[in-house]
Amino acid sequence: MYHKTLSYRIFSIFNNVFLTIISVLCLLPMYHLLMVSMSSSAPANAGLVTFWPIGFTLEAYAQTFKNANFLASLWVSVQRTIIGTGLALIVNTIAAYALSKETRVFRARNIYLWYFVFTMLFTGGLIPGYILILKLGLMNNLMALILPGLVAVFNIILLLNFFRGVPKDLEEAAFIDGAGQFRTFFSIYLPLSMPVIATVSLFIMVGHWNAYFDGMIYMKDAAKLPLASFMQTIIVKADMSSLDAAAIASLSQRTIRASQIFISALPILLVYPFLQRFFVTGIVVGAVKE
Amino acid sequence: MEAKTVQPVNLETSRTIKRKKSYKQPWVLHLMVLPAAILVFIFSYIPMSGIIMAFKDYKPALGIMDSPWVGLKHFRYMFENDYFMQIAWNTLFFACSKMVMNLIVPFLFALLLNEVRKMALKRTIQTLVYLPHFLSWVTLSGILIDMLAQTGIINQLISNVFGIKPIFFLGDGAWFRFTIIFSDVWKEFGFNTIIFLAALSGINPSLYEAAEVDGATRWKQTMHITIPSLIPIAIVIATLALGNVLNANFDQIFNLYSPLVYQQGDIIDTFVYREGLLSGQFSFATAVSLIKSVISLILIVISYRLAYKFAGYRIF
Protein backbone atom coordinates (compact mmCIF):
# COMPACT_ATOMS: atom_id res chain seq x y z
CA MET A 1 0.00 0.00 0.00
CA TYR A 2 3.00 2.25 0.55
CA HIS A 3 3.16 3.05 -3.14
CA LYS A 4 -0.20 4.75 -3.00
CA THR A 5 0.86 7.39 -0.48
CA LEU A 6 1.56 10.89 -1.75
CA SER A 7 5.10 11.10 -0.44
CA TYR A 8 6.07 7.82 -2.07
CA ARG A 9 4.59 8.93 -5.36
CA ILE A 10 6.62 12.13 -5.30
CA PHE A 11 9.72 10.16 -4.41
CA SER A 12 8.98 7.72 -7.19
CA ILE A 13 8.79 10.44 -9.83
CA PHE A 14 12.06 12.02 -8.68
CA ASN A 15 13.68 8.62 -8.48
CA ASN A 16 12.67 7.67 -12.01
CA VAL A 17 13.90 10.99 -13.39
CA PHE A 18 17.16 10.77 -11.46
CA LEU A 19 17.92 7.22 -12.57
CA THR A 20 17.04 8.07 -16.15
CA ILE A 21 19.50 10.96 -16.09
CA ILE A 22 22.22 8.74 -14.62
CA SER A 23 21.68 6.07 -17.23
CA VAL A 24 21.68 8.61 -20.06
CA LEU A 25 25.01 9.87 -18.69
CA CYS A 26 26.39 6.38 -19.31
CA LEU A 27 25.57 6.64 -22.98
CA LEU A 28 26.20 10.33 -23.59
CA PRO A 29 30.00 10.19 -24.12
CA MET A 30 29.57 7.53 -26.82
CA TYR A 31 26.81 9.58 -28.40
CA HIS A 32 28.86 12.78 -28.35
CA LEU A 33 31.72 10.91 -30.03
CA LEU A 34 29.39 9.67 -32.75
CA MET A 35 28.18 13.20 -33.39
CA VAL A 36 31.76 14.51 -33.62
CA SER A 37 32.61 11.74 -36.07
CA MET A 38 29.73 12.74 -38.35
CA SER A 39 30.51 16.46 -38.41
CA SER A 40 32.73 18.48 -40.74
CA SER A 41 36.25 18.80 -39.42
CA ALA A 42 36.33 22.59 -38.97
CA PRO A 43 33.50 22.87 -36.40
CA ALA A 44 34.67 19.62 -34.77
CA ASN A 45 38.22 20.91 -34.30
CA ALA A 46 36.88 24.17 -32.93
CA GLY A 47 34.89 22.20 -30.35
CA LEU A 48 31.49 23.42 -31.52
CA VAL A 49 29.84 20.00 -31.82
CA THR A 50 27.83 18.91 -28.81
CA PHE A 51 24.83 16.68 -29.33
CA TRP A 52 24.06 17.23 -32.97
CA PRO A 53 26.35 16.97 -36.00
CA ILE A 54 27.39 20.29 -37.54
CA GLY A 55 27.86 20.09 -41.30
CA PHE A 56 26.85 16.44 -41.51
CA THR A 57 29.31 14.32 -43.50
CA LEU A 58 30.55 10.74 -43.48
CA GLU A 59 33.94 11.79 -44.85
CA ALA A 60 35.72 10.65 -41.68
CA TYR A 61 34.37 7.12 -42.10
CA ALA A 62 35.36 7.08 -45.77
CA GLN A 63 38.89 8.15 -44.77
CA THR A 64 39.06 5.51 -42.06
CA PHE A 65 38.07 2.71 -44.39
CA LYS A 66 40.73 3.82 -46.88
CA ASN A 67 43.41 3.54 -44.20
CA ALA A 68 45.29 0.29 -44.91
CA ASN A 69 46.69 0.04 -41.36
CA PHE A 70 43.25 0.37 -39.87
CA LEU A 71 41.85 -2.36 -42.11
CA ALA A 72 44.76 -4.70 -41.42
CA SER A 73 44.28 -4.23 -37.70
CA LEU A 74 40.57 -4.81 -37.98
CA TRP A 75 41.29 -8.14 -39.69
CA VAL A 76 43.79 -9.17 -37.00
CA SER A 77 41.20 -8.41 -34.32
CA VAL A 78 38.52 -10.41 -36.11
CA GLN A 79 40.89 -13.37 -36.41
CA ARG A 80 42.03 -13.31 -32.82
CA THR A 81 38.47 -12.96 -31.56
CA ILE A 82 37.07 -15.85 -33.59
CA ILE A 83 39.98 -18.26 -33.21
CA GLY A 84 40.64 -17.26 -29.61
CA THR A 85 37.02 -17.60 -28.52
CA GLY A 86 36.55 -20.92 -30.32
CA LEU A 87 39.67 -22.52 -28.86
CA ALA A 88 39.00 -21.14 -25.40
CA LEU A 89 35.45 -22.45 -25.37
CA ILE A 90 36.54 -25.97 -26.32
CA VAL A 91 39.42 -26.18 -23.86
CA ASN A 92 37.64 -24.49 -20.93
CA THR A 93 34.27 -26.21 -21.17
CA ILE A 94 35.79 -29.69 -21.49
CA ALA A 95 38.11 -29.06 -18.55
CA ALA A 96 35.25 -27.59 -16.51
CA TYR A 97 33.11 -30.65 -17.25
CA ALA A 98 35.75 -33.02 -15.93
CA LEU A 99 36.35 -30.82 -12.89
CA SER A 100 32.64 -30.66 -12.13
CA LYS A 101 32.65 -34.38 -11.30
CA GLU A 102 32.58 -35.35 -7.68
CA THR A 103 35.81 -36.35 -6.01
CA ARG A 104 34.35 -39.88 -5.66
CA VAL A 105 34.30 -40.23 -9.45
CA PHE A 106 37.36 -38.14 -10.32
CA ARG A 107 39.86 -38.45 -7.53
CA ALA A 108 42.41 -36.02 -8.91
CA ARG A 109 39.80 -33.30 -9.20
CA ASN A 110 40.86 -31.27 -6.18
CA ILE A 111 44.51 -31.44 -7.12
CA TYR A 112 43.72 -30.10 -10.59
CA LEU A 113 41.47 -27.40 -9.15
CA TRP A 114 44.20 -26.09 -6.87
CA TYR A 115 46.67 -26.35 -9.74
CA PHE A 116 44.43 -24.02 -11.74
CA VAL A 117 43.30 -21.73 -8.93
CA PHE A 118 46.87 -21.09 -7.82
CA THR A 119 47.50 -19.29 -11.11
CA MET A 120 44.72 -16.87 -10.17
CA LEU A 121 46.45 -16.12 -6.89
CA PHE A 122 50.04 -15.78 -8.02
CA THR A 123 51.66 -14.90 -11.32
CA GLY A 124 55.19 -14.60 -12.57
CA GLY A 125 54.46 -11.07 -13.70
CA LEU A 126 55.03 -9.14 -16.87
CA ILE A 127 58.72 -9.68 -17.56
CA PRO A 128 58.98 -13.49 -17.29
CA GLY A 129 55.87 -13.80 -19.46
CA TYR A 130 57.43 -11.53 -22.06
CA ILE A 131 60.69 -13.49 -22.05
CA LEU A 132 58.76 -16.75 -22.42
CA ILE A 133 57.00 -15.51 -25.57
CA LEU A 134 60.37 -14.34 -26.87
CA LYS A 135 61.98 -17.75 -26.19
CA LEU A 136 59.06 -19.66 -27.71
CA GLY A 137 59.52 -17.66 -30.90
CA LEU A 138 55.94 -16.42 -30.77
CA MET A 139 56.86 -12.77 -31.28
CA ASN A 140 54.84 -11.27 -34.10
CA ASN A 141 52.66 -14.41 -34.19
CA LEU A 142 48.91 -14.40 -33.77
CA MET A 143 49.25 -17.26 -31.28
CA ALA A 144 51.02 -14.92 -28.84
CA LEU A 145 47.70 -13.13 -28.51
CA ILE A 146 45.65 -16.31 -28.13
CA LEU A 147 47.56 -18.98 -26.20
CA PRO A 148 48.71 -17.18 -23.02
CA GLY A 149 45.19 -16.24 -21.94
CA LEU A 150 43.40 -19.26 -23.37
CA VAL A 151 42.73 -20.94 -20.05
CA ALA A 152 40.77 -18.49 -17.93
CA VAL A 153 40.35 -20.03 -14.52
CA PHE A 154 37.52 -17.70 -13.60
CA ASN A 155 35.54 -18.98 -16.59
CA ILE A 156 36.29 -22.59 -15.69
CA ILE A 157 34.89 -21.99 -12.22
CA LEU A 158 31.79 -20.30 -13.61
CA LEU A 159 31.23 -23.23 -15.96
CA LEU A 160 31.89 -25.96 -13.44
CA ASN A 161 29.54 -24.40 -10.91
CA PHE A 162 26.86 -24.43 -13.58
CA PHE A 163 27.60 -28.02 -14.66
CA ARG A 164 27.21 -29.15 -11.08
CA GLY A 165 23.64 -27.91 -11.16
CA VAL A 166 22.73 -30.28 -14.01
CA PRO A 167 20.65 -33.13 -12.49
CA LYS A 168 22.75 -36.25 -11.85
CA ASP A 169 19.89 -38.48 -13.11
CA LEU A 170 20.41 -37.26 -16.66
CA GLU A 171 24.06 -38.17 -16.54
CA GLU A 172 23.33 -41.62 -15.09
CA ALA A 173 20.70 -42.27 -17.72
CA ALA A 174 23.25 -41.39 -20.40
CA PHE A 175 25.84 -43.73 -18.89
CA ILE A 176 23.32 -46.57 -18.68
CA ASP A 177 22.55 -46.04 -22.34
CA GLY A 178 26.23 -46.54 -23.00
CA ALA A 179 27.41 -42.98 -23.56
CA GLY A 180 30.99 -42.17 -22.58
CA GLN A 181 32.16 -39.01 -20.88
CA PHE A 182 32.65 -37.08 -24.13
CA ARG A 183 29.25 -38.13 -25.45
CA THR A 184 27.56 -37.19 -22.16
CA PHE A 185 29.30 -33.85 -22.23
CA PHE A 186 28.35 -32.99 -25.80
CA SER A 187 24.82 -34.41 -25.83
CA ILE A 188 23.61 -33.70 -22.30
CA TYR A 189 25.66 -30.98 -20.65
CA LEU A 190 26.35 -28.62 -23.54
CA PRO A 191 22.73 -28.19 -24.68
CA LEU A 192 21.62 -27.62 -21.09
CA SER A 193 24.32 -25.04 -20.40
CA MET A 194 23.69 -22.51 -23.13
CA PRO A 195 23.11 -19.54 -20.77
CA VAL A 196 26.44 -19.95 -19.02
CA ILE A 197 28.22 -20.73 -22.29
CA ALA A 198 26.79 -17.55 -23.81
CA THR A 199 28.03 -15.63 -20.76
CA VAL A 200 31.50 -17.07 -20.97
CA SER A 201 31.65 -16.52 -24.75
CA LEU A 202 30.69 -12.91 -24.23
CA PHE A 203 33.45 -12.44 -21.66
CA ILE A 204 36.05 -14.07 -23.88
CA MET A 205 35.00 -12.24 -27.05
CA VAL A 206 34.91 -8.86 -25.36
CA GLY A 207 38.24 -9.62 -23.73
CA HIS A 208 39.84 -10.42 -27.09
CA TRP A 209 38.33 -7.46 -28.86
CA ASN A 210 39.42 -5.04 -26.14
CA ALA A 211 42.89 -6.47 -25.44
CA TYR A 212 45.59 -4.05 -26.54
CA PHE A 213 48.53 -4.65 -24.26
CA ASP A 214 49.63 -8.05 -25.62
CA GLY A 215 49.42 -6.75 -29.19
CA MET A 216 51.41 -3.69 -28.21
CA ILE A 217 54.32 -5.63 -26.70
CA TYR A 218 54.34 -8.81 -28.84
CA MET A 219 53.54 -7.50 -32.32
CA LYS A 220 56.43 -5.75 -33.99
CA ASP A 221 54.86 -5.20 -37.46
CA ALA A 222 52.32 -2.41 -37.74
CA ALA A 223 50.24 -4.64 -40.03
CA LYS A 224 49.90 -7.31 -37.33
CA LEU A 225 48.64 -5.02 -34.56
CA PRO A 226 45.12 -5.88 -33.41
CA LEU A 227 42.67 -3.01 -33.63
CA ALA A 228 42.74 -2.18 -29.92
CA SER A 229 46.55 -1.82 -30.00
CA PHE A 230 46.34 0.23 -33.16
CA MET A 231 43.82 2.52 -31.50
CA GLN A 232 46.02 2.74 -28.44
CA THR A 233 48.95 3.98 -30.51
CA ILE A 234 46.94 6.62 -32.33
CA ILE A 235 44.87 7.85 -29.38
CA VAL A 236 47.16 7.73 -26.46
CA LYS A 237 50.55 8.25 -27.99
CA ALA A 238 49.13 11.23 -29.87
CA ASP A 239 48.68 12.83 -26.52
CA MET A 240 52.25 12.15 -25.53
CA SER A 241 53.68 14.08 -28.46
CA SER A 242 56.03 11.30 -29.52
CA LEU A 243 55.01 11.10 -33.16
CA ASP A 244 56.39 12.38 -36.42
CA ALA A 245 54.91 15.36 -38.22
CA ALA A 246 52.84 13.38 -40.72
CA ALA A 247 51.17 11.38 -37.99
CA ILE A 248 50.38 14.53 -36.02
CA ALA A 249 48.83 16.12 -39.10
CA SER A 250 46.48 13.20 -39.59
CA LEU A 251 45.68 13.08 -35.89
CA SER A 252 44.65 16.71 -35.81
CA GLN A 253 41.61 15.42 -37.64
CA ARG A 254 39.44 15.07 -34.60
CA THR A 255 36.62 13.64 -36.66
CA ILE A 256 38.75 10.81 -38.05
CA ARG A 257 39.92 9.85 -34.62
CA ALA A 258 36.33 9.88 -33.39
CA SER A 259 35.20 7.69 -36.27
CA GLN A 260 37.99 5.19 -35.59
CA ILE A 261 37.11 5.01 -31.91
CA PHE A 262 33.48 4.51 -32.77
CA ILE A 263 34.12 1.75 -35.32
CA SER A 264 36.42 -0.07 -32.90
CA ALA A 265 33.70 0.00 -30.23
CA LEU A 266 30.90 -0.90 -32.63
CA PRO A 267 31.12 -4.72 -32.42
CA ILE A 268 30.81 -4.49 -28.64
CA LEU A 269 27.79 -2.21 -28.97
CA LEU A 270 26.18 -4.58 -31.47
CA VAL A 271 26.77 -7.87 -29.70
CA TYR A 272 25.94 -6.49 -26.28
CA PRO A 273 22.10 -6.25 -26.29
CA PHE A 274 21.72 -9.85 -27.51
CA LEU A 275 23.96 -11.38 -24.92
CA GLN A 276 23.03 -9.07 -22.07
CA ARG A 277 20.13 -11.17 -20.89
CA PHE A 278 22.35 -14.25 -20.86
CA PHE A 279 25.16 -12.82 -18.82
CA VAL A 280 22.98 -11.72 -15.94
CA THR A 281 21.41 -15.17 -15.60
CA GLY A 282 24.79 -16.80 -16.23
CA ILE A 283 26.58 -14.85 -13.52
CA VAL A 284 23.82 -15.27 -11.01
CA VAL A 285 23.39 -18.98 -11.67
CA GLY A 286 27.14 -19.57 -11.76
CA ALA A 287 27.47 -17.84 -8.41
CA VAL A 288 24.69 -19.74 -6.66
CA LYS A 289 25.80 -23.02 -5.19
CA GLU A 290 24.19 -25.72 -3.16
CA MET B 1 36.39 -46.27 -26.16
CA GLU B 2 37.72 -49.84 -26.08
CA ALA B 3 34.20 -51.15 -25.72
CA LYS B 4 33.46 -49.99 -29.24
CA THR B 5 36.08 -52.24 -30.78
CA VAL B 6 34.86 -55.29 -28.85
CA GLN B 7 32.19 -57.20 -30.74
CA PRO B 8 29.22 -57.44 -28.39
CA VAL B 9 28.27 -61.08 -27.77
CA ASN B 10 24.89 -60.40 -26.27
CA LEU B 11 23.07 -57.24 -25.35
CA GLU B 12 23.09 -57.70 -21.59
CA THR B 13 26.84 -58.18 -21.17
CA SER B 14 27.77 -55.43 -23.58
CA ARG B 15 25.68 -52.97 -21.60
CA THR B 16 27.25 -53.91 -18.32
CA ILE B 17 30.69 -53.60 -19.85
CA LYS B 18 29.90 -50.19 -21.26
CA ARG B 19 28.33 -48.96 -18.10
CA LYS B 20 31.30 -49.99 -16.03
CA LYS B 21 33.69 -48.43 -18.51
CA SER B 22 31.93 -45.11 -18.68
CA TYR B 23 31.37 -44.84 -14.99
CA LYS B 24 34.89 -45.80 -14.13
CA GLN B 25 36.91 -44.04 -16.74
CA PRO B 26 38.82 -41.34 -14.90
CA TRP B 27 41.46 -41.51 -17.63
CA VAL B 28 38.94 -39.88 -19.97
CA LEU B 29 38.44 -37.15 -17.37
CA HIS B 30 42.21 -36.70 -17.14
CA LEU B 31 42.30 -36.42 -20.91
CA MET B 32 39.66 -33.72 -20.76
CA VAL B 33 41.64 -31.61 -18.29
CA LEU B 34 44.93 -32.21 -20.08
CA PRO B 35 44.86 -29.41 -22.72
CA ALA B 36 44.02 -26.78 -20.11
CA ALA B 37 46.60 -28.21 -17.71
CA ILE B 38 49.36 -28.10 -20.34
CA LEU B 39 48.55 -24.53 -21.37
CA VAL B 40 48.52 -23.39 -17.77
CA PHE B 41 51.84 -25.12 -17.18
CA ILE B 42 53.48 -23.36 -20.12
CA PHE B 43 51.98 -19.91 -19.75
CA SER B 44 51.58 -19.63 -15.98
CA TYR B 45 53.95 -22.00 -14.21
CA ILE B 46 57.00 -21.56 -16.43
CA PRO B 47 56.87 -17.75 -16.04
CA MET B 48 56.61 -18.27 -12.27
CA SER B 49 60.01 -19.94 -12.36
CA GLY B 50 61.23 -16.81 -14.14
CA ILE B 51 60.95 -14.85 -10.91
CA ILE B 52 64.44 -16.06 -9.97
CA MET B 53 65.46 -13.21 -12.27
CA ALA B 54 64.61 -10.90 -9.41
CA PHE B 55 67.63 -12.27 -7.54
CA LYS B 56 69.97 -12.05 -10.53
CA ASP B 57 71.28 -9.44 -12.92
CA TYR B 58 69.57 -10.67 -16.03
CA LYS B 59 71.48 -10.18 -19.25
CA PRO B 60 69.58 -11.28 -22.37
CA ALA B 61 72.82 -12.54 -23.91
CA LEU B 62 73.55 -14.86 -20.96
CA GLY B 63 70.00 -16.14 -20.40
CA ILE B 64 68.27 -16.56 -17.06
CA MET B 65 70.38 -19.49 -15.83
CA ASP B 66 73.82 -18.04 -16.51
CA SER B 67 73.16 -14.49 -15.37
CA PRO B 68 75.02 -13.68 -12.13
CA TRP B 69 73.27 -13.91 -8.75
CA VAL B 70 72.98 -10.61 -6.90
CA GLY B 71 70.91 -11.62 -3.89
CA LEU B 72 68.59 -8.93 -2.61
CA LYS B 73 70.24 -6.02 -4.42
CA HIS B 74 67.13 -5.06 -6.39
CA PHE B 75 64.89 -5.26 -3.35
CA ARG B 76 67.23 -3.10 -1.29
CA TYR B 77 67.38 -0.55 -4.09
CA MET B 78 63.59 -0.57 -4.31
CA PHE B 79 62.98 0.17 -0.64
CA GLU B 80 65.64 2.86 -0.49
CA ASN B 81 64.07 4.60 -3.46
CA ASP B 82 61.74 7.49 -2.60
CA TYR B 83 60.03 7.30 -5.95
CA PHE B 84 59.08 3.66 -5.37
CA MET B 85 57.50 4.62 -2.06
CA GLN B 86 55.52 7.32 -3.84
CA ILE B 87 54.12 4.92 -6.46
CA ALA B 88 53.34 2.32 -3.79
CA TRP B 89 51.32 4.99 -2.01
CA ASN B 90 49.65 6.09 -5.27
CA THR B 91 48.70 2.48 -5.98
CA LEU B 92 47.15 2.04 -2.54
CA PHE B 93 45.36 5.36 -2.82
CA PHE B 94 43.78 4.60 -6.18
CA ALA B 95 42.89 1.01 -5.35
CA CYS B 96 41.31 1.82 -1.98
CA SER B 97 39.37 4.85 -3.20
CA LYS B 98 37.97 2.87 -6.10
CA MET B 99 37.14 -0.06 -3.86
CA VAL B 100 35.15 2.09 -1.45
CA MET B 101 33.36 4.02 -4.18
CA ASN B 102 32.66 0.87 -6.18
CA LEU B 103 30.93 -0.59 -3.16
CA ILE B 104 28.91 2.44 -2.04
CA VAL B 105 27.71 3.71 -5.41
CA PRO B 106 26.37 0.36 -6.74
CA PHE B 107 24.78 -0.33 -3.35
CA LEU B 108 22.84 2.96 -3.43
CA PHE B 109 22.06 2.59 -7.10
CA ALA B 110 20.64 -0.90 -6.56
CA LEU B 111 18.45 0.42 -3.73
CA LEU B 112 17.08 3.19 -5.92
CA LEU B 113 16.63 0.89 -8.90
CA ASN B 114 14.70 -1.49 -6.69
CA GLU B 115 12.08 1.24 -6.24
CA VAL B 116 11.42 1.55 -9.97
CA ARG B 117 8.12 -0.22 -10.49
CA LYS B 118 7.85 0.06 -14.28
CA MET B 119 9.65 -3.02 -15.55
CA ALA B 120 10.34 -1.53 -18.99
CA LEU B 121 12.03 1.52 -17.48
CA LYS B 122 13.97 -0.62 -15.05
CA ARG B 123 15.29 -2.84 -17.82
CA THR B 124 16.25 0.11 -20.01
CA ILE B 125 18.17 1.69 -17.15
CA GLN B 126 19.97 -1.58 -16.47
CA THR B 127 20.91 -2.01 -20.12
CA LEU B 128 22.36 1.49 -20.29
CA VAL B 129 24.34 1.38 -17.06
CA TYR B 130 25.94 -2.02 -17.77
CA LEU B 131 27.22 -0.83 -21.12
CA PRO B 132 30.38 1.12 -20.15
CA HIS B 133 31.73 -1.98 -18.40
CA PHE B 134 32.16 -3.66 -21.78
CA LEU B 135 34.00 -0.82 -23.49
CA SER B 136 37.76 -1.00 -23.28
CA TRP B 137 39.89 1.56 -21.53
CA VAL B 138 41.51 2.31 -24.86
CA THR B 139 38.15 3.37 -26.28
CA LEU B 140 37.17 5.21 -23.14
CA SER B 141 40.49 7.02 -22.87
CA GLY B 142 40.05 8.12 -26.46
CA ILE B 143 36.68 9.56 -25.51
CA LEU B 144 37.92 11.04 -22.23
CA ILE B 145 41.00 12.64 -23.78
CA ASP B 146 38.72 14.19 -26.39
CA MET B 147 36.05 15.35 -23.95
CA LEU B 148 38.45 16.62 -21.27
CA ALA B 149 40.75 18.50 -23.64
CA GLN B 150 41.16 22.27 -23.34
CA THR B 151 38.63 22.71 -26.14
CA GLY B 152 36.64 19.61 -25.23
CA ILE B 153 32.98 19.55 -24.37
CA ILE B 154 33.47 19.44 -20.59
CA ASN B 155 35.72 22.48 -20.45
CA GLN B 156 33.41 24.38 -22.80
CA LEU B 157 30.52 23.60 -20.52
CA ILE B 158 32.46 24.68 -17.45
CA SER B 159 33.56 27.98 -18.98
CA ASN B 160 30.09 28.72 -20.34
CA VAL B 161 28.23 27.94 -17.13
CA PHE B 162 30.67 29.01 -14.43
CA GLY B 163 32.86 31.33 -16.42
CA ILE B 164 36.10 29.84 -15.07
CA LYS B 165 39.27 28.92 -16.89
CA PRO B 166 39.56 25.47 -18.50
CA ILE B 167 40.72 22.72 -16.14
CA PHE B 168 43.69 20.47 -16.93
CA PHE B 169 41.89 17.26 -16.03
CA LEU B 170 44.66 14.99 -17.25
CA GLY B 171 47.60 17.30 -16.76
CA ASP B 172 47.19 18.40 -13.16
CA GLY B 173 48.00 15.84 -10.47
CA ALA B 174 45.04 16.43 -8.17
CA TRP B 175 42.54 16.62 -11.02
CA PHE B 176 44.11 13.52 -12.55
CA ARG B 177 43.41 11.55 -9.39
CA PHE B 178 39.84 12.78 -9.34
CA THR B 179 39.36 11.92 -13.03
CA ILE B 180 40.75 8.42 -12.57
CA ILE B 181 38.48 7.57 -9.65
CA PHE B 182 35.41 9.23 -11.11
CA SER B 183 35.76 7.61 -14.54
CA ASP B 184 36.37 4.20 -12.98
CA VAL B 185 33.20 4.46 -10.93
CA TRP B 186 31.31 5.70 -13.98
CA LYS B 187 32.49 2.67 -15.96
CA GLU B 188 31.90 -0.01 -13.34
CA PHE B 189 29.07 1.02 -11.01
CA GLY B 190 26.32 -0.36 -13.27
CA PHE B 191 27.91 -3.75 -13.64
CA ASN B 192 28.62 -3.92 -9.92
CA THR B 193 24.92 -3.49 -9.13
CA ILE B 194 24.18 -6.92 -10.67
CA ILE B 195 25.18 -8.79 -7.57
CA PHE B 196 23.12 -6.49 -5.31
CA LEU B 197 20.09 -6.78 -7.57
CA ALA B 198 20.40 -10.56 -7.39
CA ALA B 199 20.46 -10.35 -3.60
CA LEU B 200 17.45 -8.00 -3.63
CA SER B 201 15.41 -10.42 -5.69
CA GLY B 202 16.22 -13.11 -3.15
CA ILE B 203 14.55 -11.31 -0.23
CA ASN B 204 11.47 -13.13 1.00
CA PRO B 205 8.41 -11.03 -0.02
CA SER B 206 6.51 -12.09 3.09
CA LEU B 207 8.87 -9.90 5.12
CA TYR B 208 7.56 -6.86 3.28
CA GLU B 209 3.96 -8.05 3.60
CA ALA B 210 4.36 -8.41 7.35
CA ALA B 211 5.92 -4.95 7.58
CA GLU B 212 3.06 -3.55 5.52
CA VAL B 213 0.51 -5.04 7.89
CA ASP B 214 2.34 -3.49 10.79
CA GLY B 215 2.09 -0.12 9.03
CA ALA B 216 5.78 0.39 8.18
CA THR B 217 6.49 3.07 5.59
CA ARG B 218 8.67 2.24 2.58
CA TRP B 219 11.55 4.10 4.22
CA LYS B 220 11.25 1.94 7.32
CA GLN B 221 11.01 -1.19 5.17
CA THR B 222 14.20 -0.16 3.40
CA MET B 223 16.03 0.53 6.65
CA HIS B 224 14.90 -2.61 8.46
CA ILE B 225 14.46 -5.20 5.71
CA THR B 226 16.23 -4.28 2.49
CA ILE B 227 19.50 -2.89 3.81
CA PRO B 228 20.04 -5.61 6.45
CA SER B 229 19.47 -8.23 3.73
CA LEU B 230 22.17 -6.68 1.56
CA ILE B 231 24.77 -6.31 4.30
CA PRO B 232 26.10 -9.91 4.13
CA ILE B 233 26.80 -9.77 0.39
CA ALA B 234 28.32 -6.29 0.79
CA ILE B 235 30.66 -7.70 3.44
CA VAL B 236 31.68 -10.54 1.14
CA ILE B 237 32.43 -8.11 -1.69
CA ALA B 238 34.39 -5.81 0.60
CA THR B 239 36.39 -8.71 2.00
CA LEU B 240 37.21 -10.19 -1.37
CA ALA B 241 38.25 -6.75 -2.62
CA LEU B 242 41.03 -6.83 -0.03
CA GLY B 243 43.08 -8.95 -2.43
CA ASN B 244 43.01 -6.09 -4.92
CA VAL B 245 44.56 -3.32 -2.84
CA LEU B 246 47.60 -3.33 -5.09
CA ASN B 247 45.62 -3.41 -8.33
CA ALA B 248 44.94 0.17 -9.27
CA ASN B 249 43.94 -0.73 -12.85
CA PHE B 250 46.89 -0.63 -15.20
CA ASP B 251 44.80 -0.28 -18.37
CA GLN B 252 43.05 2.84 -17.21
CA ILE B 253 46.06 4.66 -15.84
CA PHE B 254 48.39 3.58 -18.62
CA ASN B 255 46.03 5.02 -21.22
CA LEU B 256 45.38 8.29 -19.43
CA TYR B 257 48.59 9.30 -17.68
CA SER B 258 51.55 11.29 -18.96
CA PRO B 259 54.89 12.36 -17.48
CA LEU B 260 53.13 15.50 -16.20
CA VAL B 261 51.25 13.48 -13.58
CA TYR B 262 53.78 10.73 -12.70
CA GLN B 263 54.15 12.12 -9.18
CA GLN B 264 50.46 11.63 -8.32
CA GLY B 265 49.42 9.16 -10.99
CA ASP B 266 52.15 6.59 -11.52
CA ILE B 267 51.41 3.14 -10.06
CA ILE B 268 53.41 -0.05 -9.52
CA ASP B 269 52.21 -1.76 -12.71
CA THR B 270 52.95 1.16 -15.01
CA PHE B 271 56.34 1.56 -13.32
CA VAL B 272 57.13 -2.14 -13.90
CA TYR B 273 56.22 -1.75 -17.56
CA ARG B 274 58.41 1.30 -18.09
CA GLU B 275 61.37 -0.01 -16.10
CA GLY B 276 61.16 -3.50 -17.58
CA LEU B 277 60.10 -3.27 -21.18
CA LEU B 278 61.06 0.30 -22.05
CA SER B 279 64.27 0.72 -20.04
CA GLY B 280 65.33 -2.92 -20.15
CA GLN B 281 65.77 -3.23 -16.35
CA PHE B 282 64.37 -6.76 -16.49
CA SER B 283 65.59 -7.93 -13.10
CA PHE B 284 64.59 -4.81 -11.20
CA ALA B 285 61.13 -4.80 -12.79
CA THR B 286 60.69 -8.47 -11.93
CA ALA B 287 61.68 -7.76 -8.33
CA VAL B 288 59.08 -5.00 -8.09
CA SER B 289 56.34 -7.16 -9.51
CA LEU B 290 57.39 -10.09 -7.31
CA ILE B 291 56.89 -7.97 -4.20
CA LYS B 292 53.48 -6.98 -5.51
CA SER B 293 52.50 -10.60 -6.30
CA VAL B 294 53.60 -11.88 -2.89
CA ILE B 295 51.71 -9.18 -0.97
CA SER B 296 48.63 -9.76 -3.15
CA LEU B 297 48.81 -13.51 -2.59
CA ILE B 298 48.90 -13.08 1.18
CA LEU B 299 45.99 -10.64 1.09
CA ILE B 300 43.89 -12.85 -1.17
CA VAL B 301 44.39 -15.87 1.07
CA ILE B 302 43.44 -13.82 4.13
CA SER B 303 40.41 -12.31 2.41
CA TYR B 304 39.06 -15.66 1.24
CA ARG B 305 39.54 -17.12 4.71
CA LEU B 306 37.64 -14.21 6.21
CA ALA B 307 34.86 -14.43 3.62
CA TYR B 308 34.53 -18.15 4.29
CA LYS B 309 34.54 -17.66 8.03
CA PHE B 310 32.00 -14.84 8.16
CA ALA B 311 29.71 -15.64 5.28
CA GLY B 312 30.45 -19.24 4.30
CA TYR B 313 31.61 -17.98 0.91
CA ARG B 314 33.45 -20.44 -1.35
CA ILE B 315 34.44 -20.07 -4.96
CA PHE B 316 33.95 -23.72 -5.89
From TrEMBL, chain A:
Signal peptide: none annotated. InterPro entries: MetI-like, MetI-like_sf. Its main location: membrane. It comes from the Bacteria. GO terms for cellular component: plasma membrane. Residues 74-272 form the ABC transmembrane type-1 domain. It holds the Pfam family BPD_transp_1. It is a multi-pass membrane protein. CDD domains: TM_PBP2 (cd06261). The chain crosses the membrane at residues 70-99, 111-133, 145-163, 184-209, 261-288. GO terms for biological process: transmembrane transport. It is found in: Cell membrane. Keywords: Cell membrane, Membrane, Transmembrane, Transmembrane helix, Transport. Belongs to the binding-protein-dependent transport system permease family. This is ABC transporter permease. The lineage of its organism: Bacteria, Bacillati, Bacillota, Bacilli, Bacillales.
TrEMBL record, chain B:
Keywords: Cell membrane, Membrane, Transmembrane, Transmembrane helix, Transport. Coiled coil: none annotated. It is found in: Cell membrane. One of its GO terms (biological process) is transmembrane transport. It is a multi-pass membrane protein. GO terms for cellular component: plasma membrane. CDD domains: TM_PBP2. PROSITE patterns: ABC_TM1 (PS50928). InterPro entries: ABC_transporter_permease (IPR051393), MetI-like (IPR000515), MetI-like_sf (IPR035906). The chain crosses the membrane at residues 27-46, 87-113, 189-208, 229-250, 282-307. The keyword Transmembrane helix applies. This is Protein lplB. The lineage of its organism: Bacteria, Bacillati, Bacillota, Bacilli, Bacillales.
